[in-house]
Amino acid sequence: PYADILSWCLMPNHFHLMVLVREVELSQALSQGLTSSQTLTAKQRTFNDSIGIMLRTYTRAVNKQEGFSGTLFRKETKAECVNCYSGIDPSFVTKNRISTYNNKNPEQQYPQVCFDYIHQNPVKAGLVENAVDWEFSSAMDYAGLRNGKLVNSEVAGKYVDINSQG
Prior knowledge:
By secondary structure, the chain is α+β, with helices and mostly antiparallel strands.
């Protein structure tokens, strides 16, 4: 109820999620199904905190299953706002050692760059020739080759050209 996944890709050593967040702070009470009186004393958790909890929980499960210990993910796990223009580096073009912002439609350009980058990641890594050949991403869903339930393509279509494959 707090976010929609617009695209995803699971790579051998990392993953990408493009998520539209509707609520930046999540009530722990709501996520744990507590009553309204218990909600009043519940702490607030940011979306990034929730992603961190998910990663730690997954790590614990894998470590327990495999008899391992330690981390599975790099410390550099990060989140970037693709429709906030302060503090991020949208698509830039460098010509004659001068960088300029490639700005045709700033509200849609950077989200599109991210959407395409996520789907093209397995191609750029040399794992497949076409993005739709990588079964561990949402590219197959957008190409109509699979009816995945993880992405919300209706919402994605408001922010990116979902027919674009890079």
